[in-house]
Write a structure and sequence with these properties.
The complex is a heterodimer of chains A (288) and B (267). By secondary structure, chain A is an all-alpha fold. Chain A has a single domain, classed as MetI-like fold (Orthogonal Bundle), CATH 1.10.3720. Chain A is 73% helix and 2% strand. Chain A has 13 helices and two strands, in the order H-E-E-H-H-H-H-H-H-H-H-H-H-H-H. In chain A, strands 1-2 form a two-stranded antiparallel ribbon. Chain A is globular. By secondary structure, chain B is mostly helical. Chain B has a domain at 65-227 and 243-263: MetI-like (MetI-like fold, Orthogonal Bundle). Chain B contains 15 helices and no strands. Chain B is globular. The chains are: A mainly alpha (288), B mainly alpha (267). Chains A and B meet through helix 1, helix 3, helix 4, helix 5 and helix 6 of A and helix 1, helix 4, helix 5, helix 6 and helix 14 of B.
Amino acid sequence: MLKLPNVMRTKSFKAYLFLLPAMIVALLFSFLPLAKCLMLSFFTVSQSGRIVAFNGLGNYISLFQNSDFINSVLNTLKFIIIFLPVNTFLTLLAAAVTRKARRTTAVTEFIFLTPLAMSLSALALIMKEIFRGRVSVINRLTDLSLSWLEESGSAMAVLVILSLFLDFALDYILLLAAFRSTDKSIIEAAEIDGAHGMSLFFRIELPSIRNVLAVTIFTALKDAILISAPVMVLTEGGPFRSTETVMYYYYLEAFRSGNRATETTIAVIMVLFSVIIMSLISRRRRDV
Amino acid sequence: MYKVLRVLITIILAVLVLFPLFYTISASFFSPQDFTDTKAHLLPSEFSFRNYELALTHRYFPVYALNSLITALLTATLKCLTAILSAFAFTHLSFKGKKALLITLLATLFIPPDAMLYENYVMTARLGLLDTYLGIVFPSIFSATAMLLTMGSYLSADKDIYEASAIDGAGDLRYISSILVPMTAPVSITIFLQSFISAFNSYLWPLLVTTRPRMRTIQIGITMLGFAEEGEMGAQFASIAIITLPCLVLLFFCRKMIMKALSGGIK
């Protein structure tokens, strides 16, 4: 088809106009802030963001010599090591036992989706009340006498429980969709070969969703590395900084201490992490 | 054997998943004594709507709820609009730098907003948008995921209709609003629903960009109602129940759609 040059031009102009809102948001809240962080992280910066002197890798080096930062890295690692396996196990289990369409499917799906309706602050308030003090609801129900939120180990446990609720529904949906899109003919062929129940599940169905499972785990890992809001509403990093994660430390440094060097340096490191994980995800996604 | 195990696991998981919700609804009817009894209550000792009255007559509760409703509607509407316009441009128009612009917009997926929290705050402050609705919604009105989802549905739209409507003299906006969007409505509705729920439930960003009580959204508001300090834990739970209910209803009626939207790329 022959296109006149001036028609092309008006189309171009119109296309740019249509893309303008998206580009403005991307520019203002993704690219400009990232460029600023990248640049400032190599300089000595005043609290207002004014550049004082070039500092090379100085900010990065002093960040890794900072014991508070190292503490937050260790806390985040601890969180990930507990959260990731438990989260994967529970969501996979829930998806596995409800994967087949039955009469009760509508009920089980709705139940496992309900955490989606509960917001972070609502869940945090509920957790705080359930685990409050020595006479907490949980303790009275189970005859324990643990001050959950006042002791390091158990505070981390409550943080993990809260995060499990926040991630559960989404991971469940992803895994359930994956199970249901498994090629039926493969399953039928395996059934004819005598595979049933457990062996069918572990030999055929689970391997067939491995890519989606990997995507779910990587996404949960990315969220876990970036965890900050649940810490803020639940424990504020306490007791004794035992739940102070990297991104909560970032929040404290940026908003409370006005330390721009630490803020921009952590931001750059976090973007790097997220780029690595996102590229792992997109590689898996392509062959889902 | 396998069946018994399966049903058992399902029930245990269901009980665990439902516990916070169950406790919230139950505790929203508790009297102040029910919270402090030596034997923990799971059900209220008597049935009364007193806690709901306390929550609903709180000076700021309706203000917070209205703010949340406005910002969630704004976010969902604007996010759909930016997704529709950009998806249309990428699938229906030819222009210079198309690929570069697409890659640029998709690159935002790699930049986590959490890591840009402070810089985005500074940006919002510099734009003079602190304590405004626009400030609360602005960073989240474009999502590359929503654009990709919309593009997917537009790619399968019949180009002949577009060309026919162009010959008939209908402009692009006319084509989008009266043919393309109605034809792909399920996708736009799912994006709308999902962004509504996530905007309604968002906590951190609205907390940072608002300072006046009149601008607070409900998610921040419920942590500041002061019921716990007055010994009215029941009213605190009633307020949680009130804000959870709309999302539960949405989930109940649009379960299939929401699941489809969230499973996104996976067929």
